[in-house]
């Protein structure tokens, strides 16, 4: 994770504007492909990003009561989605084919999926289609959300130099200019508080859906079986009943005492219950390590004229990207 963070940031030039959202998407895509599937997809990052954007554009369609009808029409949006699906499938199926051909057990997620057996059925292994479905979910969800969280992190740090200064002080004290390792995560407590506060204000999964299997009573209302219910972390995370001054970026609020007193599900950026996000620990570790690796070398400032707005689709993206100007920093500055 930190090696990829170092490599991508070494390409940046001081004072030269860059779209930090695109950079974070490229970075987290490379990391999830390498760590979970042993693949190098950085050269494909631009096309994969475009395909993902085209797929996410249909989010509003999914919740429409006319979705099934609209999906059958020869609309330009449907053609774009078909291209996006085929482009993403091309990458995933190639990764699966290469691993099957090698027969190598790399000890990663893909090897685990290839070796998995249906112990409750015929004892067989996964088909390529089943592998594709599992891999695609992790591949997309495992980078899009983290990229958004990191993008909002650089924006919020640029707007709050006092928080940025405290973060830099911790990084200098703990790391002294070297790249962080997994052993450092427990010592980077303020970095963890920064990440926790970022995904309170801008939860990458801003809405979570569940389907009622049976009639479900909610107060005086009843949701019939089959109803899709939506819960919004974004709404709850901005509720002053749980978070005083809820719109303020204030990492210091995350004290052990505050965490202990917070009601269950007042903070749920990774969902909850039996279907709690399987990648939560992976994402938290990745977020802390990348914040540490990049922030100790770079400061980000919002480019003049950059408009910051929300784009709530499946994930919470910056609507107009996030063009920022990087400046180098030295330990102790």
Q: If you had to describe this structure to a student in words, what would you say it looks like?
A:
With 333 residues, the chain is mainly α. 50% of the residues lie in helices and 10% in strands. The protein has a single domain (2-328), classed as Cytochrome p450. It contains 13 helices and 9 strands. A 3-stranded antiparallel β-sheet has the order 1-9-6. It has a two-stranded antiparallel ribbon with strand order 2-5. A hairpin with a 3-residue loop joins strand 7 (310-312) and strand 8 (316-318).
Keywords:
Cytochrome p450, 9 strands, two-stranded antiparallel ribbon, 333 residues, mainly alpha, single chain, 13 helices
What is the topological layout?
Layout: H1 2-9, E1 18-19, H2 20-37, H3 45-56, H4 59-62, H5 67-70, H6 76-102, H7 109-115, H8 128-159, H9 161-175, H10 189-201, E2 208-211, E3 216-218, E4 221-223, E5 228-231, H11 233-237, H12 256-261, H13 280-295, E6 298-302, E7 310-312, E8 316-318, E9 323-328
Antiparallel strand pairs: 1-9, 2-5, 3-4, 6-9, 7-8
Total individual domains: 1
Class by helix and strand content? mainly alpha
The CATH architecture: Orthogonal Bundle
Strand order of the largest sheet: 1-9-6
Distance between the termini: 25 Å
Determine the number of helices (DSSP H or I, runs of at least 4 residues): 13
Q: Percent of residues in beta strands?
A: 5-15%
Whole-angstrom Rg:
21 Å
The percentage helix is: 40-55%
């Amino acid at each position: 994770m930190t090696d990829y963070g170092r490599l991508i940031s070494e390409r940046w030039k001081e004072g030269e504007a860059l779209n930090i959202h695109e950079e974070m998407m490229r970075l987290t895509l490379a990391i999830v492909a390498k760590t979970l599937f042993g693949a190098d997809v950085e050269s494909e990052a631009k096309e994969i990003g475009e395909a993902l954007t085209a797929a996410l554009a249909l989010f509003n369609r999914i919740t429409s009561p006319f979705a099934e009808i609209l999906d059958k029409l020869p609309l330009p949006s449907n053609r774009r989605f078909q291209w996006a699906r085929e482009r993403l499938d091309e990458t995933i199926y190639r990764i699966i084919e290469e691993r099957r051909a090698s027969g190598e057990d790399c000890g990663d997620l893909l090897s685990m999926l290839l070796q998995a057996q249906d112990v409750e059925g015929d004892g067989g292994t996964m088909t390529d289609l089943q592998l594709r479905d599992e891999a695609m979910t992790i591949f997309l969800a495992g980078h899009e959300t983290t990229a958004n969280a990191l993008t909002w992190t650089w924006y919020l740090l640029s707007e709050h130099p006092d928080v940025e200064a405290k973060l830099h002080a911790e990084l200098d004290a703990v790391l002294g200019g070297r790249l962080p390792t997994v052993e450092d995560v427990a010592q980077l407590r303020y970095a963890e508080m920064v990440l926790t506060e970022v995904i309170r204000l801008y939860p990458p999964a801003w809405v979570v859906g569940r389907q009622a299997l049976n009639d479900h009573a909610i107060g005086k209302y009843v949701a019939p079986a089959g109803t899709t219910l939506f819960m919004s972390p974004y709404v709850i995370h901005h509720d002053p009943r749980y978070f005083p001054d809820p719109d303020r970026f204030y990492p210091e609020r995350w004290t052990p005492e505050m965490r202990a007193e917070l009601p269950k599900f007042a903070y749920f950026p990774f969902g909850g219950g039996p279907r709690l996000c399987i990648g939560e620990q992976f994402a938290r570790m990745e977020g802390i390590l990348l914040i540490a690796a990049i922030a100790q070398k770079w400061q980000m400032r919002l480019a003049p004229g950059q408009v910051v707005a929300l784009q709530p689709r499946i994930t919470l993206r910056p609507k107009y990207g996030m063009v920022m100007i990087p400046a180098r920093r030295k330990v102790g500055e």
